[in-house]
Automatic annotation (TrEMBL):
PANTHER family: TETRATHIONATE REDUCTASE SUBUNIT A, TRIMETHYLAMINE-N-OXIDE REDUCTASE
Family of the protein in this entry: Belongs to the prokaryotic molybdopterin-containing oxidoreductase family.
Organism: Thermosulfurimonas dismutans
UniProt keyword list: 4Fe-4S, Iron, Iron-sulfur, Metal-binding, Molybdenum, Oxidoreductase, Signal
InterPro entries in UniProt: Asp_de-COase-like_dom_sf, MoPterin_dinucl-bd_dom, Mopterin_OxRdtase, Mopterin_OxRdtase_4Fe-4S_dom, Prok_Mopterin_Oxidored, TAT_signal
Full protein name: Molybdopterin oxydoreductase, catalytic subunit A
Positions of the 4Fe-4S Mo/W bis-MGD-type domain: 44-104
Domain of life: Bacteria
UniProt GO molecular function: 4 iron, 4 sulfur cluster binding; metal ion binding; molybdopterin cofactor binding; oxidoreductase activity
């Protein structure tokens, strides 16, 4: 009976879909080429995907018809679901005729762009041969650079088994570590953009400074949150080098133009006003932070603090937990006691204990802020003092349902660590961490590995060497691709010999592109795996054509920037074109060729036999006890699992409090001051202004033809990948709205005799030889000292790319092509905008 019904239903279904003229609005019926199959032709398949048109991996649904991906939809199984315009253009990327189709071998000089087709066998054998050689000699000289990897869960164990610790991400060119340690000082651990969220829906007032949630949009769930906040009456002020209409257009929102790279001064002045007007949250500072800590005003050392060590059970391990107990001045008892014994700790003040002068940490902070008046900041930033005061007033009045957005992409200038340190200070003064309407934390689900655990090899990692020996204590070792090039330049700790990039455009995405390519002569083998040609591929010896995300199964993923802990699925929806193959297959093929057969069997055997079905089950083993409802069946059907949102932010400070006076910073500060390190001041735990490099060079005064080139995202572009910059659909829209133009202020344009629509030559003052062309938009919506362009719109200096990416706009600049191979002090970020740019009519 049941079988009958389902058969009838089945016939009806297939009949309606395949043969009825009543097809739903918006459906596309393509001409029949093959005999229809009931599961395929005319019937839409809905496959769980994670979008990769930018890097955020938003859970989405791919709609497949006749074996083709016809559109992307939001995943409806989320409380806040949505995908953005870039995601909607996925089919135009997947079926782009410019996709890499076969493995390629370089035949011309590096950079020349001459390649010939080879077989996968040959490509893999060639790579394996070099890998085998270095496995014996020095496996650490092989560097793996992943970003858009199609081998998650497989690649890391492979490279660690191989013997290299050098798996290094792109994040030193994104948020690491100016953002992560600038804010992290307050929490005793790096705070990445994915660790916190602004509670847009419940906030009343917010400052966006170098942050553009409407353009650098992560729709799921951020964009929806942001829109909800705006509907709920969230008022915004944007302090930006250009008018970021993506975020703040509409009533009640304001734009204050700021001179590029001077943001720390703006935030310090906000803090100054908040403290001066006693607009801070006093109870919060006393209770939740170490503001009352008594310190020596000379050395800044906590006064007579003690560190206690306790052993604690954590699962089956015992860990040592260190806690600092510190003295405060108890106003109730009129003496110094440990904080836990005080009933009325003093927030401000200077005291004498045993003949020694001590002050509270907050007293030290207040004193340090004294000189950073709004008038002082106006001279540096050009933001009017009265505007700074008005913003501070708004923050004070509406606290704690306020935020200074902690931002995302930070590595634009040398002073980014100080910028985010100052942003952290303002948010701490206002008590908005862990508050509804303020800033919350993001809990993450811990999945098991796909393969058995592999230990990280003991050999020295390049980034760790620079962290320990070369004055970059705030590096995040897994995130420092530009130090690979520093190692090439200096030979320290050794010269890398093989670079294998999987979805990282290490040349186009990193400041100093033109300097980087010169260093590549020292590298024996460069392999780039990607679906699209990019700057890095031009210098590769072997190019491997990757699949795009709808064309492969992938490990489950948990790292999302959103308020709920989430697990999401990506399943193969369509066949890859030509000879494109996924990264997990490539890793297994290399493992077969390079590892010993026992190693291969031990680590890869089960995965090779069981495939992703096995891999996914392995990742989820035993997890549904802790997280009810995480099952593979559900993930395959709905694509996602999500848990509960909360506002807690994990801390790893010695005091277990939010350290408004950062002991992590203090330790580094003391050490570097002792050594006489010129940038020691950047680690000062107290508020402190540091100018960007360009400012140091020019004392803030640019000549008539000099500018700072700045970048940002729009909802219709992303990085340098072919997904968006060479996308025929997006290109159509870009042309309509002039997204590829270079913004220039009318006063500056007039002085240079430049007219709207003119094509100009853009080049760095330090190297006029490197040039790109751009079409200008003359607009008052940009600060006079800045030029602005969306990131990743053209070929820039690497015009050879036009041969491979035919939908690229004719003109366009990429800041990284012009900037220097310099490193932000202490944290090593790429400081890409910290360079003076000139323009002239082409
Ligand atoms: N001047 C300036 N520089 C910047 C930025 C800026 O705004 N301005 N932004 C910075 C930021 S925030 C970041 S995160 C970095 C990003 O820097 P990059 O790592 O350089 O990122 P992309 O430019 O996206 O390059 C990634 C490559 O992956 C490829 N790719 C896409 N999908 C896949 C896939 O499925 N598999 C594989 N194997 N490859 C794939 C793309 O085609 C592209 O070639 O750039 C930073 N650099
Ligand atoms: N559309 C799109 N969205 C994305 C991505 C993408 O590729 N495309 N990628 C994601 C990633 S990896 C990241 S890191 C985030 C980035 O997210 P955001 O950092 O928010 O985005 P951006 O647009 O790079 O930069 C924010 C703003 O900084 C401004 N700006 C530039 N220089 C200065 C300055 O000196 N001072 C001040 N005050 N403002 C300045 C720009 O004009 C821009 O409006 O976006 C994520 N979302
Ligand atoms: S923000 Fe847009 S392009 Fe980026 S992953 Fe999400 S849906 Fe895709
Ligand atoms: Mo980024």
């Amino acid at each position: 009976m049941e079988a009958k019904i389902s058969r009838r239903k089945f016939l009806k279904l297939s009949g309606v879909a395949a043969f009825s003229p009543f097809i739903r609005l918006g459906d596309v019926v393509s001409p029949r080429t093959k005999a229809p199959t009931p599961t395929d032709f005319g019937v839409e398949k809905r496959v769980p995907l994670r979008c990769r048109m930018c890097a955020q991996q938003c859970p989405a649904i791919g709609i497949v018809k006749d074996g083709k991906l016809i559109k992307m939809e939001a995943n409806p199984h989320l409380p806040y679901s949505g995908i953005c315009g870039r995601s909607r253009s996925t089919p135009a990327a997947v079926y782009n005729p410019d996709r890499l189709k076969y493995p390629l071998l370089r035949v011309g000089k590096r950079g020349e762009g001459k390649f010939k087709r080879i077989s996968w066998e040959e490509a893999l054998d060639r790579i394996a041969k070099v890998l085998k050689k270095y496995r014996k000699e020095a496996p650490e000289k092989v560097v793996y650079l992943p970003r858009f990897t199609s081998a998650a869960g497989i690649d890391k164990p492979f490279w660690h088994l191989y013997g290299t610790p050098n798996i290094i991400s792109y994040a030193d060119t994104c948020h690491s570590a100016g953002h992560d340690w600038g804010l992290g000082g307050y929490f005793g651990r790096p705070i990445s953009p994915g660790a916190v969220w602004m509670d847009y829906p419940n906030a009343k007032f917010g400052v966006l400074a170098m942050r553009n949630p409407g353009g650098g949009l992560c729709v799921y769930q951020f964009g929806t949150f942001f829109a909800e906040g705006k509907r709920n009456g969230l008022r915004l002020v944007s302090v930006d080098v250009r008018f970021p209409n993506e975020s703040i257009e509409g009533a009640g929102h304001r734009w204050l133009p700021i001179r590029p790279g001077t943001d720390p001064a703006f935030h310090l002045a906000l803090a100054h006003v908040i403290v001066k007007k006693k607009g801070y949250d006093e109870a919060y500072l006393i209770e939740k932070t170490n503001a009352c800590m008594l310190i020596d005003p000379e050395t800044l050392e906590p006064f007579k603090a003690v560190i206690e060590e306790k052993e604690e059970k954590k699962g089956d391990k015992t860990v040592k937990k260190r806690t600092m107990r510190y003295l405060v001045w108890d106003e109730a008892q009129g003496k110094a006691v440990f904080k836990s014994q005080a009933s009325k700790p003093a927030l401000l003040g200077e005291f004498e204990i045993e003949g020694k002068k001590v002050i509270t940490a907050f007293e030290a902070i207040s004193r340090a802020l004294e000189r950073y008046t709004p008038q002082w900041a106006e001279k540096i930033t050009t933001v009017p003092a009265k505007e700074i005061e008005a913003i501070a007033e708004e923050l004070i009045k509406n606290k704690p349902q306020v935020f200074v957005d902690t931002g995302w992409y930070s590595e634009r200038y040398a002073n980014s660590l100080r910028q985010f340190h100052a942003i952290g200070l303002v948010n701490t003064l206002l008590g908005c961490w862990e508050k509804k309407g303020g800033i919350g934390g993001i809990p993450k689900v811990k999945l098991h590995g796909v393969l058995p655990k592999v230990k990280k090899p003991k050999r020295i990692q390049i980034t760790k060497y620079y962290q320990k020996k070369e004055g970059y204590p705030f590096i995040i070792p897994k995130a420092g691709r530009r130090f690979v090039f520093e190692a090439l330049r200096t030979g320290k700790p050794y010269e890398p010999k093989v670079i294998f990039a999987m979805g990282q455009n290490f040349i186009g995405g990193s400041a100093g592109s033109v300097e980087l390519i010169k260093l590549l002569d020292k590298v024996e083998l460069i392999v780039c795996m990607t679906p699209f040609m990019d700057e890095s591929c031009l210098y590769a010896d072997i190019i491997l054509p990757d699949t795009m995300f709808p064309e492969r199964n992938e490990a489950l993923h948990v790292k999302f920037k959103q308020s709920f802990p989430t697990v999401a699925m990506n399943m193969k929806a369509v066949e890859p074109p030509f000879e494109a193959r996924p990264g997990d297959w490539v890793m297994v093929e290399l493992a077969k060729r390079v590892l010993f057969s026992e190693e291969f069997e031990k680590y890869f055997g089960d995965f090779v036999r069981g495939g992703w079905e096995y891999g996914w089950r392995k990742q989820l083993e035993g997890l549904d006890e802790k997280y009810p409802g995480i099952t593979l069946e559900r993930l395959k059907k709905e694509g996602v699992w999500y848990g509960k949102q909360n506002y807690k932010i994990k801390k790893k400070t010695l005091t277990h409090e939010i350290e408004i006076f950062s002991l992590t910073f203090l330790e580094t500060y003391k050490k570097f001051k002792e050594k006489g390190y010129p940038f020691a001041e950047y680690a000062n735990p107290l508020p402190s202004w540091a100018p960007p490099f360009w400012w140091e060079e020019k004392k803030g005064q640019l000549a008539e033809d000099e500018f700072i080139l700045t970048t940002g995202f729009s909802p219709l572009n992303s990085f340098t990948g072919g997904q968006t910059r060479n996308n025929p659909l997006l290109r159509e829209i870009w042309d309509q709205i002039g997204l590829d133009r270079l913004w220039i202020h009318p006063e500056r344009a007039q002085k240079l005799g430049i007219q709207d629509g003119d094509v100009v030559e853009v080049f760095p003052a330090h190297n006029p030889e490197i040039r790109a062309t751009a079409r200008v938009w003359i607009t008052p919506l940009v600060h006079p000292d800045a030029l602005f362009t969306y990131y990743g719109v053209g070929a820039g200096v690497f015009s050879q790319l036009k041969k491979f990416l035919v939908f690229l706009p004719e003109h366009g600049v990429n800041m990284n092509h012009f900037s220097k191979l310099h490193f932000a002090p202490l944290q090593g970020g790429h400081a890409t905008q910290d360079v003076i740019i000139k323009i002239r009519r082409a």
